[in-house]
Design a protein that fits this description.
The complex is a heterodimer of chains A (about 100) and B (about 170). Chain A is built from three helices and one strand; from the N terminus they run E-H-H-H. By secondary structure, chain A is mostly helical. The relative contact order of chain B is 0.08. Classes of the chains: A mainly alpha (about 100), B mainly alpha (about 170).
């Protein structure tokens, strides 16, 4: 028995997840939530890479996903460090208050 | 079962759950709940990886994202003591514009991809490309240099995070 799902379904699922992330970036004020929405967008791309890797039977796509995970981990570490420094200075992670970057 | 195979059922359920949890991440007011919903989204995506025969990636995804990155988020949120009361909301106009832009983006993507060629993904077969052995060979043969660069990147990120995080020494 061969179970098949069209690649288009995965493309649409990834598109929807990506757009939810993009709307989250636009609609929220908490910088940490915005970071999480960026993670969501990265994961939508990862899902698409893995599904195309399965479609073409090529492991390179999955290796790309590893690299995206490594870069995401680095980004989160530095980003949260910057946010915690900002929080120490202005006692908030509200991006509307952070918009000037200089006190 | 109603003309659908088990794989298709699983795909539908996991997709529905992933989208619902992703929406909850954006719409929940409490940041801690937001993190927990994002963890659930990641579990659904890991299920998708399993369906796609990417077993190793599914495990790594859970370990790295749910285990490491989201715990980091949770720590930072709890350190800052963020909750519903401290949460500032954008104005309704901004939210509606954001939703509108998202809807337009979705319409453009669906319109573009609607006419794309239908290709079937062969799943549940004896595909071996998701296994550690195959991925390891590819990673250390074709992608050795990017792999080393990634290690330098992680080292740089670690040093940067520590430098940013430590208290300034008064001279």
């Amino acid at each position: 028995m061969i179970n098949t799902i069209p690649i288009n379904y995965y493309i649409f699922l990834s598109a929807v997840l990506f757009i939810i992330g993009a709307v989250g970036v636009m609609a929220r004020r908490n910088a940490i939530i915005i970071f999480m929405c960026i993670e969501l967008m990265l994961n939508a791309v990862n899902l698409l890479l893995v599904s195309f890797s399965t479609l073409h039977n090529d492991p390179s796509g999955q290796v790309f996903v590893f690299f995206i995970m490594a870069v995401a981990a680095a980004e989160v570490a530095v980003g949260l460090a910057i946010l915690s420094v900002a929080y120490r200075n202005i006692k908030s992670v509200d991006i509307d208050l952070l918009s000037k970057l200089k006190n | 079962m109603l003309g659908y195979s088990i794989t298709q059922w699983l795909f539908g359920i996991l997709s529905f759950l992933a989208i619902m949890f992703a929406l909850m991440v954006v719409f929940t007011r409490n940041p801690v709940n937001s993190v927990l919903y994002l963890v659930m989204t990641f579990f659904c995506i890991a299920g998708h990886y399993l369906l796609l025969n990417a077993q190793f990636l599914a495990v790594v995804h859970i370990v790295v994202y749910a285990g490491a990155i989201m715990v980091l988020f949770l720590f930072v949120i709890m350190l800052m003591n963020l909750n519903e009361e401290t949460e500032q909301q954008k104005t309704l106009v901004t939210k509606m514009i954001a939703g509108l832009i998202g809807g337009v983006l979705l319409a453009v993507m669906v319109g573009t991809l609607k006419g794309a060629e239908q290709m079937q993904l062969a799943q549940g077969g004896a595909s071996q490309i998701g296994m550690v052995k195959v991925l390891g060979v590819v990673l250390f043969k074709d992608f050795l240099f990017p792999f080393e660069i990634a290690s330098v990147l992680l080292l740089g990120a670690m040093v940067g995070a520590i430098m940013l995080g430590k208290k300034e020494i008064k001279s």
